Amino acid sequence: MTRITKAVFPVAGLGTRFLPATKAMPKELLPIIDKPIVQYAVEEAIAAGITDLVFITGRNKRAVGDHFDANLELENQLAAKGKHELRDLVRNIVPRGVNCIFIRQAEPLGLGHAVLCARPAVGDAPFAVLLADDMMRGARLPTAALVEAYDRDPRSYLSVSEVSLEEVSSYGILRPGPGGTDGAQVEVAGLVEKPAPQDAPSRLASFGRYVFHPEIFDVLAALGPGAGGEIQLADAIDALAVRGRVGAIRNPSHRYDCGAKFGYLTAIVDTALEHPEYRDRFRALLADRLARTPDATPGKTG
After folding, report:
1. Can you say whether residue 180 is alpha, beta or left, with left for phi > 0 and alpha for psi between -120 and 50 degrees?
2. 29-53 pLDDT, tens per residue?
3. Domain named Nucleotidyl transferase: which ranges (predicted)?
4. Where in the chain is the domain with CATH 3.90.550.10?
5. d(Cα 47, Cα 41) in Å, to the nearest integer?
6. Helix or strand (DSSP H, E) at 74
7. Average pLDDT of span 177-189
8. Mean pLDDT, all residues of the chain
């Protein structure tokens, strides 16, 4: 059986919800304190045994490649100033033995098309897909869980979590197969994209972590344009699910939707509260701000 060593990162989106910050800077490089969002996804993939990172980029996304590329000038300057710890931090963003591949998505034709663009680099191998907007934190992360599921039974898998009935219209929702929705692993009979609450077949939502059998490429290549005139990954997953070729694994970690401003802010706060250097001062800062009167001006002392 072929082990999963390749991961695809679709990073060609425009990030319009964060304008004007993302007018010139890719949304994937927005920082969570001192580390960009996309690096969390990359580290998750590497921890799951991934050695080939395939980035599907678009216009104005050169900075993503620059972040993961070597910067010898910066490394030499840090070393000359005796800042060896910082130099090693920059040098080891991508560990030795891990390869970065960049493919340009010439037209914004949807997530399914972005995944299909990875075919020349992935070939006939199984692969993971990670959307950097979804930041995961926890002792066990979803990509490792998905890879382990594939090792047991080679087919496609989705990472899922239960959402409220009011939220189902924002996600791809699972139509469960035999056995219902109990247990850590769920059979998938189909995937319904953003259903109305009264039409939702379950409350299990698919998020930005996947593992795919290479057969997904043929399905994507045969698809016509779906919603919005784009090639929809959800349509390809649904087609495979009808054949009994898709399973779902409940997300074992905490997910932050960093594609939304409040989710991004929450990720920053929670990360700061656990940061070994800043957590104590940050807790004190929050306590001070919360203790102020409602009309107090931030930054102004009593």
Report:
1. left
2. 999 998 999 999 999 999 999 999 9
3. 11-247
4. 6-256
5. 10
6. helix 72-80
7. 79
8. 89
Neighbours of 4 (CB within 10 A): 24
CB distance 190 to 241 below 8 Å: yes
CATH superfamily entry for domain 6-256: Spore Coat Polysaccharide Biosynthesis Protein SpsA; Chain A (3.90.550.10)
Q: How many CA atoms lie within 13 A of 238 on its CB side?
A: 15
Kind and range of the H or E run holding 210: strand 204-212
Amino acid, single-letter form, for residue 56: I
pLDDT in tens, 145-170: 999 999 999 999 999 999 999 899 98
What are the angstrom distances between the C-alpha of 256 and each of 1, 146, 162, 163?
33, 18, 14, 13
Strand ranges in 118-264 using DSSP code E only, listed in sequence order? 127-130, 134-137, 156-162, 172-176, 185-193, 204-212, 246-250, 254-257
d(CA 254, CA 269): 14
C-alpha–C-alpha distance, residues 191 and 206, integer Å? 9
